[in-house]
Amino acid sequence: MNKTTLSIIKADIGSLGGHIKPSTPLFKKVEEFIEKEGKGIVSDYFVSHTGDDMAILFSHKHGIGSEEVHKLAWDAFLAGTEVAKSQGLYGAGQDLLKDSFSGNIRGMGPAVAEMEFVERPNEPFLFFAADKTDPGAYNLPLYLMFADPMYNSGLILSPNMAKGFKFVIMDVNHTEGDRIIELNAPEELYDIAALLRDNERFVVESVWSRETGEIAAVVSTTRLHNIAGKYTGKDDPVMLVRVQGPFPATGEALAPFNIGHYVAGFMRGSHTGPLMPVKMNSSVSYFDGPPVVCALGFCVHNGKLTEPADAFDHPYWDYIRAKVSRKATEIREQGFSGAAMLPYSELEYGGIVQKMQKLGPKFYIREKAE
Ligand code: 13P
Ligand code: 13P
Ligand code: MG
Ligand code: MG
């Protein structure tokens, strides 16, 4: 069968004024590199940025984990890093955590989400990219778009989704190999919810149609601190979701993003903030955030990508952005206290760990009064 592979490979390789957005020369370099070096390797590509993360969407014929395609992306990011260094951008090469390419870009810093399928006569899909958050940010939206008829009316109205979907969930704390569980919605909804409540540990890796057995969604599951052993930046995840037919309608896949749910990330990757749906090529700002996500709708046909439709560029989402700004302001009012900052186990910066070590010996046990 003639299959098409979609691969998103994204990395933060340097940014203007802190962690805001890549520079124009950096962006252009990555694009030019792919245009020139991608010939004969990929069928098509699209480059965009979300906050300070550059994402390359490829369409190609080499399947998942292709060394050629991964190396193309790695080399494009290296070329971009050279520009970032020459301009003195902040965090030049931030997400390129290994010195040399070793066959597969997974585990080297960049985030990867890939799926392979036989194209339908029309093949619409959504590209998502987020900044200032981690892969668990997609847990709730995926649960709602694939398992909850309150968000996905097709679960009631369409005969093509009647059997529901299979969730493949990864325990991202397990670093010696991939620890995976497969659970079916709707029968195992409560088990799925029990895992997905813990966004930092259990992350949806993929979702599959139980009607057709086809891949429906994939998420990048990289946890940078598991690779680097220390904070080097947030994971800033990407996701692909096929839409229409046996999958959610585009609007059903977008619907859960109107919650602006609270996710991990924001300033120094150490806080809780609401996820704001933004337009293509948006920056971040307030308190290095709030966490943002963009959604681009494409069709792919014989490997060729259409232009993107910028799905959150619509007046409805201005209203949501105002709501999310309010939520961001409200949680920031309590600064470092309680739920506003992530728990100790997730604090990405070494500083607080060192502080606790210093303070430890200063604690003493009060003598009991006689
Ligand atoms: P990035 O992961 O987007 O580089 O952000 C890092 C950070 O610490 C922002 O405050
Ligand atoms: P420093 O490396 O200057 O501490 O910056 C960290 C950072 O950018 C967090 O946003
Ligand atoms: Mg950065
Ligand atoms: Mg980023």
How would you summarize what this structure contains?
By secondary structure, the chain is α+β, with helices and mostly antiparallel strands.
Characteristics of this structure?
4-stranded antiparallel beta sheet, binds 1,3-dihydroxyacetonephosphate, Alpha-Beta Plaits, globular, 10-stranded mixed beta sheet, alpha+beta, 370 residues, 2 domains, single chain, binds magnesium ion
- Compute the number of strand runs: 16
Low-confidence runs of at least 5 consecutive residues? none
Q: Number of helical runs?
A: 9
Shape by Cα distribution: globular
Q: Quaternary state, please?
A: single chain
Structural domain tally: 2
Bound molecules: 1,3-dihydroxyacetonephosphate, magnesium ion
- The end-to-end distance, rounded to whole angstroms, is 83 Å
- Arithmetic mean pLDDT: 95
Written description of the protein model:
The chain is of the alpha+beta class and about 375 residues long. The chain folds into two domains: about 1-120, 2-Layer Sandwich (Alpha-Beta Plaits), CATH 3.30.70; about 120-360, no CATH class. The chain is built from nine helices and 16 strands. Strands 5, 6, 7, 8, 9, 10, 13, 14, 15 and 16 form a ten-stranded mixed sheet that branches. A hairpin with a 5-residue loop joins β11 and β12. α3 (about 140-145) packs antiparallel against α5 (about 190-195). The termini are far apart.
